[in-house]
Every structure is written in C-alpha cells, then in structure tokens.
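One such shown below:
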Amino acid sequence: ATVPPPGAGGEAAPGHSSLFGYIEDLQELTIIERPVRRSLKTPEEIERLTVDEELSDIERAVYLLSSGQDIQGTSVVANLPVLMRQNPAETLRRVLPKIREVLHVAGVEMQLTAAVSFLTVLQEESVSIHTYSHSFLHIILQNLEHRDAGVSNAWLETLLAVIEALPKETVRHEILNPLVSKAQLSQTLQSRLVSCKIMGKVANKFEAHIVKREVLPLVKSLCQDVEYEVRACMCRQLEHVARGIGTELTKTVVLPELVELARDEGSSVRLAAFETLVNLLDMFDADDRSQTVLPLVKSFCEKSFKTDESILVSLSFHLGKLCNGLYGIFTPEQHLRFLEFYKKLSTLGLQQENGHNDNQLHLQTLEQEKKYISVRKNCAYNFPAMIVFVDPKNFHLELYSIFFCLCHDPEVPVRYTMAISFFEVAKLLNSDVYTIHKELVTLLQDESLEVLDALVGHLPEILELMTNRGENNGSESKLLSIPDLIPALTTAEQRAATSLKWRTHEKLLQKYACLPHIISSDQIYYRFLHRMLTIILTNNVLPVQKAAARTLCVYLRYNRKQEQRHEVIQKLIAQLGQGKSYWNRLRFLDTCEFIMELFSKSFFCKYFFLPVLELTHDPVANVRMKLCCLLPKVKSTLKIPTDKHLLQQLELCIRKLLCQEKDKDVLTIVKRTVLELDRMEISVDAFQKRFYENDLLDQEKERQEHLLLEMEQLEKEKQKNEGRSTNINDKMFEKKRKFVYLCTFLCMLYSSTKVVEKGLVRSQSFSTQVLHPKYSNIDKCPKYLYNLHCLPPSSLSKLPLCVSDDSFRTHAVGNSGSAAFPSSSSRNLFNSADQKSNGNKESQTRRMSM
C-alpha cells in the first residue's frame, strides 16, 4: 500500500498547512536576505570609509569633517566632549571651526547630536565659561531658529542651560539686546516662541530695575501677540518673570496681564493663565486673592462644567493647592462650595452610563471617559490636601464617602493613586486612622497588582500607625481590626505569588518583615511563618526566595515560644540544609547569613554551626564553593575559649577540603579562604578594645534573647498558677512580670541608642548590666529604676511604657530587632533581671574580674 500524501485525508490537513506555512516562511527569509546582500558596501565605498590609522584624534576628526560621510561627521560631533577633555586647545582651534561649517548644511541627526555635545561640554566644564561663550555661544545662537522644530527646541534647551552659567554682561550683550528684534511681530512664529522662553530665563538673571526697563516691555508685547501659541507660551513664562521682579511689580504689571489672559478667546491661553495664577498664589496679598484671584477661580469652576471642559483636568489637578492657598479668605459658604465642587469632580463620570450604545457618539464618549478618569485620578492625588482643607477632625463627616468611592473606583489609575497617597492620609488622620482600616483591606485585596505594589511601599508605616493609634483609642479597636487584616495580607501574598510580577512578590515579602510589631507571635507562626518556608522550598525566583528567607528569620527572631522555635530550626536544617536538591542547600546557606545578621553569635553556634560545616562534604561543587565563601563569617561567630571545640571542627573541615577537594574552582576558593581565615582574629569571651562595638552589640542581642525567654517562663508560671493562686500571689506575679518587661525595654532602648553610635565611650568596667555604662551596677543607677521592683502594679502601669503583651511586642521589640532565644549554657555573659536587682557581691566581683 502506498502512503497517502499529507493532504489526502481531512485529519492531515493541519500538518499540510503547517508544512506549507513553514516553506512560505523560508521563502520570506530568502526574500528578506536579498536586499541585505545588495546593501553591502562595495570595495570602492569601503575604501572611501577607510581612514589612516596613524592619524591623531584631532587630525582624524578634521579629515572626517572635511571629506567624510555624514555618519562619520556625526560620530566626530558626538565625540567632541572627549576631544575637549584630551586636547581642548587644538580642538577649539581646528575641530570646532569645521563643525561650525558643517552644521550649516547638516541634517537633523547631526544637529541634535551637536546640541547635546555642546551641552555636555558646558556641564563638564572642560573650558572656562569665558572661553565657552567666545567659542560655542555664537554657534548655538545661529542654529536656534532651525526650520525643524525638534532641532530648534534642542538648541534652545542648550541655550537656556548656558544662560545660567554666563556672566550678566555677556547675557545682556549677546542675548538680551538681539532679543528685542527677535520678538517683533515681523519675525516668524518660531522666533517669537523662542523669545518667550528666553524671557523667562533672563528675568531671573538681572536686578528688578533692569528687568522692568528692558524685559517687561517685551513681555507685554508678547502677551498681546496675534498668535494664541505665543500668548500661551508667554503666559507660562510669567511665573518666572514674577519671581525675578518681586511682589510689587508682580501686583502692578504681571497680575493685570494674567487677568486679561484669563479672559482670552483661546482655551490654551486661559488654561495657561489659570495654572500661572495658582503657582503665584504665594506672591499675592490677601486683597489681591480675595478681590482678583478668587472671582477668576470661581469663574473657572463655573465654566468648567458648562462651556469650557478643556480646563477640567487642569482644574482638578490644581484644586488642592488652590483651596489651601485661598483658605484664609474663604467665607464658610465659599468653603462649603469648593468642597462640594471637589466632591462632584471625585465622582465625575460614574453616574453617566448612558450613551455607550449610541454609535454616533461612541468616539466622543470614549474621549470623555478618558477625561473623566484623569479628573478622578487628580482628585485622588489631591485627597491629602483636601483633608488639610476640611481639617482631619471633620474627615469622617465630610470626606469619608469620597475616600470610599475613590478606593473602590472602577478604574485602576484612580485606585493606584489612592494607594500611593494612603500613607499620607493615615498620617494626617492621626488618632482617627482606624476609620480607614476597611479601605486598607480593600486595596490589599485589589485585583490589580499595580495597586498592591503602590500600597506595599509604605505598608509597615501604615500598619504601625494603625496599631499605635488604635492603642490610643483602647485595645479593643486594635484587636477587632486584626481578623480581617490577616486574611487580606495572606490573600495579597498569594496573588502576587501566582502572578508573573516577581518584583512585586519580592517587595511584599520584604515588607512583611514588619508583622512581628503588628500582630502576635502565634498569628505569625500559624499564618505566615510556614508560608515563608514553603516559598523558599518551591519558588523558582532567587530574589523572592532570599526575601522569604530573611523574613522567616525575622519571624523566628521574634517568636516567643521555645517549642515553635525548635520546630522551625529543625525544619530549616532537615528540609534545606539536608535537602535532596542542591538548590535548597544553597538557600540554607543564604538563610544562615541572615541568622548571623539577626541573632547573637551564641545562637548561631548552638544551632547552625555544625549543620553548616556538614556541607563541606556536599557532592555538588556549587554548594561547597558557596560554603567556602561563607566560612569567614562563620568563624567570626566563635569566641575563645568557649568555642574552642567548634574552632577545631572548622579547622578540620578546612584541612579535609585542602586535601580531598578535586574541583579546581572550589580548590582555588578554598586556598583564598584559608588565607583570609589566617588573617582573621577571633574574639574572646572578655571584651577587647578592637572588637568592643561588635561585642557589645552581640552581648545586647544575647541579653534580649535571655530576657524574652524569661518572659516565656513567667507566662507559663502564670498559666499554672491561674487556678490556685490567691489575690496576693497574682499581685506578686504581676509585679515580677512587669519588672522583667521594663528591664527588657530598657535593654532594647540602650542597644538602639548606644550601640549604633560610632563614638562609643568605653565603660570603666566592661560589665554586663542593662543600664547606662556610667553605672557600674544596679545600686548606682537612679532610684527611679532601682525601686521599680518595689512599686505596686498600679504605679508601674502609670509609667510611659506599655507593659501588656501586645504593647511590649509592638514597642519594646520594635527598635532593637531582637527576640527571645536560648543561648548556650557555657556563655554566662549576664544574669537574670532579678539577680541584677539584688546587686550581690558575687556578681560585682565577676564584673570587676572581667
């Protein structure tokens, strides 16, 4: 039987079409290739493009500008800043005149390149400003009125930058005097537009009387030009002119011109006048604002909906600045009127749903919808300013409904802008920030990741404001806000994880490290900590894995239950350090770096030192290579003589690597690491001058771990004694627990203020007390601290320190970046809080011996 052709059966039709499609693609490629071959340079063309290699840079530049092609000349012009740095004298003498000749007939590309090169030479200050004005300024002025608008604007930007650096006399003779003729009606439109922009720059260069005599007549003439483009351009420059001449001349000269331009027949001119008025509000006195500016603004607002929607977008953008600038002259009725106008703009287009089915108005409706979206976006941008306008105390009554609408707006740009300004809103509301908690949850659950990304930028600050202000209003509001916040946070992370925007996911995980200061340790353990471990094990993006690893270490740092800590540590070692995938073992080493950064040295040595060394036998060279790079940091966690056995283990592993390593790359890194390890000095248990700051910081970390561990023990004691304790026992227990909290807070406050300072004052005795170094023991500290353990609970509760569980977690732990973890029994660097309060002679003797 013969095999049927591919197109014989109906089922083979797709294969047939794909085969012929492939052939057609090949034919298209051959067609495309033919012109490429034809466009190759002939030997004659290559010969003309060839330049003698023995020529110097200056000679080559002159040759290419004289007889080279356009692309070669453009290359020389682009290289002008380099030539000016290497040999400025010869460049000015030989190259620059050639560039001046070429620019007369040069194309657009060379003109744009020359404008950029001239500006670069100015910015790099390759020559003095006198030499620059003598050599380059005339070329800039000659090409300023190029027929191409893009080229003209490029040279204009260069000239405006040059004007700032030029001396006044040069500007006056070379620029201002010729400007009188360039601004006349007989000149071209392009020339008059250029003159307008130069006027705005020159006005800030001279004294007010010179501007009044020589510049203001030209300004008035250009404000009354017959072309609306010139009037609009000059109107936008009036702000710079006003800043240059001062308030008196602004009131008598500039303000009347703005009033006249605000009634111009051209909409672009009216828009320019309105924006300039808003920007100059700070230069007008109360009378000008109330008698001149306010009527104009009211007229703009009325016309924006009726006859002139062209200024609606600009009006909504400047409304916040306008309302606060005119705040002092508003009557209550006008205040309410502008507030209602803002509310109307904030919902513009949401109620108008008709017209979409009308085919004739479909295009018009689309343009109108874009305009309305821009208006609502600008209202979202101005929302913080409007809170200031109505006073934050009146937010719930006056603006909360608008805030709700903007956060639930159907368009992403509006919600994105609200997410960006959410932190500013939260700061302004202060103690009333709890009123916008629902909107925070809404934005966290937004379907657009752009909105989530904008909100996450200030998420730690927002959550801190909400929890802290919630405490001011009672703990109930804070606790009630947690249940809907946690699901929103977990939902946001899952949506970011399932998207392709890994940078948003990474940013989110980094910001979630703030949660130990916001919610309880148990909530973090059950809702977030295991999720971080899952991300490390399953995610394929390295930055996301590292962000999750660091956040997991932060959660572990603040975890307050020893059983949970041990469980997480065992999982890290088993699933990462001893995982089957080499990728997981690499992430284990990354996690160990974060452990060394966040925890005390004793904690790392107790739990992670030996598991890290076990990776010296890893079968994958990349793991051994990364481990070798990490070994110097690992060695820095050791203290002699306490960790002498660990040091021996480290040296044994190094010897095995030197003797048994077969991979050349790993062996090279091992040898380099050995040299670095040999140069390292190991700290000892006692303080040393060269390690004083690091040792003190590590001591504070370890002290905090112990004190928080004591808190856990106190909580367990309280749970055991709850059923059978008397009222007196409860008071004694509460007194002891509050004292431990206070000691922990003082410890963290000390570490956050003293340890970070560069110029630490060395204490007379390197004691381990929690208090200031100037006190050698607890007996010498102020009576206020010494008698704290004797105070009744009612007195302790009046101290400026929150001693409840949540308040300690939020405030005391927040500054120091530490938590409770057990330390090795061999490191007795400090005593418990009760032992310190006793101040016995044995502890004092131990301190003095150190």
User: Anything to note?
Assistant: The radius of gyration is 37 Å. The CA atoms of residues 251 and 284 lie 7 Å apart. The longest strand covers residues 639-640.
